[in-house]
Fold each of these.
Amino acid sequence: MSTNWKTVRVFISSTFRDMQAERDHLVRWVFPRLRENLLHHRIHFVDVDLRWGVTSEQDAVDVMREAIDECRPRFLCMIGGRYGWVPPNRGRSILEEEIRYGVLDRIGQHGYSFFYFRDSDATGAMNEERLGEFREPHGSDNERKLEQLKQAIEHAGLRQFIYTAQWDAQQQRLVGLNELGDRVYADLLESIYDEFGLAAVSEPDARAEERAATEALMEQLTETYVGRQDLIHALKSFVSNNDLATTLVVTGPAGSGKSALIAMLYFELIQQNAAYITIPC
């Protein structure tokens, strides 16, 4: 595998039911744009979102902490009107556990943390089908805990950005999230440039863009590649033997790793400064 590529991860923290629109906006529009920009710097961007990943109540906190550690030094948190789910026998919600473990308990240590608070008017306009769906009931213990958590973030001197949104009654979801998306994009990109000492790429040519995209795909394909050295050796022998035919077909069932095999071959040839053929993947 090429050693020139780097991987940047960011942990996404928020409650779930009331933050679907924000998370979807980031995944559909912001993160793809960020990945495209970072291709030119040979950087993979990975967003870690546990909203689908935790199935065991007993393991929720441990899974969360492990994921946060893997994403350091970046932590991104969006807060609306809910304090969130509190696991059995614990006094804190998963949201607060994430914030305290990821940032508040490590104040002063190097890191990039970003907090985005939804404007209270936008949260108040969200139409609830059941009490507590999008905001904590007024006067409740969870409402008090949420306010204390936001105050702890502010008192720690952490930067917060308050974003606006509108409730679409027909779609029954929040819209108008471009302000949030643009800020997240700018914050993450600035942090990555700062960490690696990079400068923006002005106008990369089409060939460079295509090559960067191809190499990024190959890096992803080979990230967990293991074994099959006998096949790699046979393929390398083929491309280095001018007496053989010029075409080789690699076949196999769907999902058996054909693309990963060819990607690994590409990287091994590059490392040997081989220029036998151009390999599409």
Note: Residues 20-39 form the longest helix (20 residues).
Amino acid sequence: MEDASKGKKLTALRVAAALAAGFIGAVIIWIITPFNNFTLYNGYISDSYLPVTALFIMIAVMLIINPLIGLIKRPLMFTKQQLAIMFGILLIACALPGDGLLRVLPYSLSKTTVEITTGKEYADAFNRMKIRPELFPGKTEYGANNPQAEKMFTGFLKDEPLPWGAWVKPLVSWGIFILFCWLMMGSLAAIVLPQWRDNEKLPFPLVEVAQSYIEEPEKGLLPELYKSRGFWIAFIAIAALHSMNMLAQYMPDRVPAIPLTLDITGIFTQPPLVYIPGTFFKTPIYFIFIAMGFFMPFRMGFSIWFFSLAYALYSALGRTYVPNFSALTVNDHRTGAMLVLTAYVIWLGRAHWMMVVKSMFFRLKGDAAFRDALSGWLFVIGCVGMIGWKLGFGVGVLALI
């Protein structure tokens, strides 16, 4: 009993240490990313399928912090479970300061407020909708003076204080909805992951890449990945390439920019091939997609390539030979495909869905049953919370549907 108690305390301390380290890394991301993105106007470093900031912090942990801890006392080194917790916190933190939230939400709220206070039609529509004013900064009456929202576009003076008081209610209100949304999404991921990973044997390229970064060292203080010559050649080459392109923006006469876009615009001049979408002729090169290709099954890669090419030819032939053709019909096809795919996913995992429901309402034994029950109820709480929030803040039933 005493050994079990010590083991639980040690596990709790390890989890606490991982949470603390992850939070410190999150604060670093929240400070560096806005300054890099919106002050220096460099390339976005937190908006990617595998964010640069999270990777950089984890590499620093694996190459510097963890080995230093190992030199002092090897048993105190971060385990793979701790590193996974830290990495998860960093990935979630990257969703906040860039395109995911900070760049869009405050400005959209301010823009809506300005439109209401300066436009009679917008004000009348807002009043008819009966949306709660707590969702927006400052006053929301037509003709009202609202510098809190207007200065988000005109700018603040150098020593002028930020109007935090006007933003408390909107941030709290939208924050509640966002938390319910994340709760729903995270619990849904926990529900479907066993079905996709264990039953359907689907590959997860990004997960495999992330796992390779946080492997525990078998010998010495470094994992095997960081001892690989190929890893460091690719890492240094790509880092140098991006660094040169960033420096070229500030010193164009001294540092050459190396283009990372494949541009063959103008190769076709006659219909129907001239109507192929421009994305086929001017395409950015993303190294993360190249890396994912190594982990992707052939059938999946072929499917992406084939249907992209097929719809490009469909659009080109339609614009050439079909009067009043609209390329937007592709969106209709995609919507239909999404509905069919969703129905197929639900049907394929019907046994797993039933097991989740049984775990929620019956006390089934085992870790898997506990995981399914917890994820299922959290999913329900997230959905009910979002619906209740929308109804409470004035979103109509038809709009909710």
Note: The first strand starts at residue 261 and ends at 263.
Amino acid sequence: MNKYIIILLSLFLSLTVNAQKNKKTESFKVFGECGECKERIETTVHGLGIKNATWDEKTGMLTVSYDSTRFTKEKIEQKIASVGHDTYDFQASDTVYENLPGCCHYDRYVKPESTTKPLDTVEKVGTIMKPSQSISGIVQGKDDKGKYFPLSFAIVHSLGTNETSITDSLGTFQLNASTPDQLIINHFGYTTDTVDVQSSVPLTITLKDAAAQKLKGVVVRGRNESTHISSLSTINTLNIGSKELKKAACCNLSESFETSPSVDVSYADAVTGIKQIELLGLSGKYTQLLTENTPEIKGLAGAFGLTFIPGTWIEGIQLTKGSGSVVNGYESIAGQINIEEIK
């Protein structure tokens, strides 16, 4: 029994030693872009029966340990290229590459025409279809004495790549963007500027102080309330606008005061339906009624003249409570009501 155990242990040790001798570890470039690419590449290698395979998302290098008697580096690369990822020796087909998710669309590798050169030479000759470039520069300001100083924490945004960089304490910035491009520079207290970049030469951008800029013009707009008292007039006059009249939905002048607490309108005669106003507790004959500042409803017409003017004709009403000046006459003892008609 012990003899068989010794034989089995010897076989196991010999197999382990052979496996260690045949084990080979290599690293080679596999083009990818994101974490989903990492999962796809490593899963493909594991599917071959190789357990140790790690792809670095930053460098794009795949490190794999495999049995050299069962696998070769070319076989592994060919399998990876079949799922859509280029290597220096094998390129994925355009159809498989296009079927990858949008986040996995990396910059394709263009294989040089001559493949007889060593691998290190191929790496130098091989080019990327969309080489990444860097745009850098300095953002500065200018004081009252004409001296320039760096602006830290300025925001530099690229319209081409939609990337953003913030300047450091020296005012410098760097963006991963290709030219030509447009940069938008923004800093609190300074005027936002847009710069067209045509080359990768370092830029020097000077922002103008926003406080030093002169205003071209200011437009002030105001809107009066539907009922307001003018602050420009020396007479305490309540102005009733067209918006307030729309709330009353009036058919004539007598119904235009339904929403105004200053004027009371009551029926003077229930048979004829004549209405009269009361201002400051006095009947309508003590209130002067004007149309366009012209006395129109007076005398006998004052009893039923409130129904003479349709509500749709009225643009506004000016209401003055209390006796006016001697110019208004004795008729405005309780006050004065002026009707502005639609022109």
Note: The helical segments are 2-22, 35-47, 73-82, 94-98, 119-125, 242-248, 301-304.
Amino acid sequence: FCILDEVDAPLDEANNVRFGLIVQEFLDLSQFIIITHHKRTMQIGNVLYGVTQQEQGVSKRVSVKFDQVQQGGRISDAAVAQAERAERLAEAEREAVRDAEPVEEHVAA
């Protein structure tokens, strides 16, 4: 695995394209996690994990495939709904685990 954090930030457009080509060359050898704000870098990925604000002031975590991103970069409503369902399921699982944890009783000897 290679984790790259904002390595593309100082690059101009031409060098960002070159960076993307280099990453693609190494995909047979490694998997990449790239943290970026650069749209061109995002385009080389298979899956995008991020945060979106579908409504003002309400942030939501999402995981989308690029075919779920609409024109102008808006994440499709179906992808957001899917992320919300996944978050509710994860929260329910966390609550079930908390409820199943044994409670220790302290008995004075």
Note: The mean pLDDT is 81.
